[in-house]
Design a protein that fits this description.
There is one protein chain. This protein is 39% helix and 18% strand. It contains 13 helices and 13 strands. The strands form 2 sheets. A 7-stranded parallel β-sheet has the order 3-2-1-4-5-6-7, sandwiched between helices. Strands 10-9-8-11-12-13 form a 6-stranded parallel β-sheet, with helices on both faces. α1 links the parallel β1 (5-10) and β2.
Length: 365
């Protein structure tokens, strides 16, 4: 019996989406990557295609929604036939309509998401209504404990929820870095702190700069802080750095591609991710691939599986710059602690490797 295709649908393909499709294809599955649009409204990714699967883009130019999108999806299904579908964007009405259409035709449909109850204040009426949006799906791939709980609440059977959704290719990151995972490679004293995040309010970078200023006050030789990302708050953050007298120690890189991020991480001392709202935080996987301790806000979904305080990093509250600064100074003042955390980070990175995504797909189909 011929094995059904697995179609993975995302709005736009970045490096992590290609990683996931390639991993599933290498596990022996027949894979198609269905990209709705040729560009992202959020990230300036260089378009990528996989090595082991077929990628199809519905709209290379423009970003139509509504009936135009529904029509294109239906025509794709009628042309290419039955498949197992793994889809993001369950909250779009177009995807909901298409999902019901697929169920009528007898296709298996799974949703992929990393939402958690504590992403932001929830409205009980909206959450009750949202259960309707999950009705077409027979299973899900989530990320971590809190994500699985969210799917269960909305009616997905526990035995049909698999993890991990948020995964990356550790091999790809290490190869692109051109370096060696810590504690090897760049010396302890020559490394810097790094933030990889969009410069938007939910990433909480004002707090990070205040924490860095507190850290600097107690550091004999303060390390530089590299910030990789672009966004509407850049001017405001640069002005705050001047007010805090840290502008000479903070380097704003703007948006950079994945290969450049990997190179910066190869000389990083520790990753900082202070978000107020963060469904997961894929950069945590990138950091651990390079053997880096992570100083992580407890709002981040990556906390569930990847980071343990005092083992491979530290967890702090997103409104606590004093706590983040204390962790930065503590790690800087204890090279042996840093080395132990680096080794533990390399071990825990396996939980975020893309092979886990391939295992989740195999479990569900």
């Amino acid at each position: 019996m011929k094995r059904l295709k697995n179609v993975f649908l995302w709005e736009n393909f970045g490096p992590m989406h290609v990683d996931r499709c390639d991993a599933v294809a290498r596990s022996g599955q027949n894979v198609v990557g269905l990209e709705l649009y040729g560009r992202s409204d959020t990230y300036d990714w260089v378009p990528e295609s996989g090595q082991t699967f077929q990628k199809i883009t519905l709209f290379k130019d423009g970003r139509p929604r509504g009936l135009s999108l529904v029509k294109a999806l239906i025509l794709y299904r009628l042309k290419h036939g039955k498949a197992n579908w793994f889809m993001c964007h369950y909250e779009w009405w177009e995807i909901l309509f298409f999902a019901f259409f697929l169920r009528v035709l007898g296709d298996q449909i799974f949703t992929m998401n990393c939402s958690k109850f504590d992403d932001f204040p929830r409205n009980s009426f909206k959450e009750a209504l949202k259960r309707f949006y999950f009705l077409p799906y027979i299973g899900a791939i989530g990320s971590g404990i809190r994500s699985k709980d969210y799917f269960r609440f909305h009616g997905i059977p526990e035995k049909k929820i698999a993890v991990e959704y948020n995964t990356l290719s550790l091999d790809r990151i290490r190869q692109m870095s051109g370096g060696i995972p810590a504690p090897k490679g760049v010396s302890f004293s020559d490394r810097h702190f790094t933030i990889v995040a969009r410069l938007v309010p939910k990433k909480n970078l004002h707090m990070a700069l205040k924490a860095y200023a507190l850290y600097k006050q107690k550091s004999v030789h303060p390390r530089l802080l590299h910030i990789c990302g672009s966004g509407l708050l850049e001017k405001e953050l640069r002005e705050l750095a001047q007010v805090l007298n840290i502008s000479n120690q903070v380097i704003f890189h703007g948006f950079i591609q994945t290969d450049a991020i990997a190179k910066i991480l190869s000389s990083t001392f520790a990753l900082l991710l202070p978000s107020i709202e963060e469904q997961f935080g894929n950069v945590v996987i990138e950091a651990q691939a390079m053997g880096l301790p992570v100083l992580l806000s407890d709002a981040c979904g990556a906390r569930d599986r990847l980071v343990r305080t005092g083992v491979n990093g530290f967890i702090f509250e997103p409104d606590n710059p004093q706590g983040l600064a204390w962790f930065m100074n503590t790690l800087e003042n204890d090279e042996n602690l840093w080395k132990r955390m680096c080794l533990e980070a390399s071990h825990s990175a396996a939980h975020g490797d893309v092979s886990r995504f391939a295992e989740a797909v195999k479990y569900l189909v």
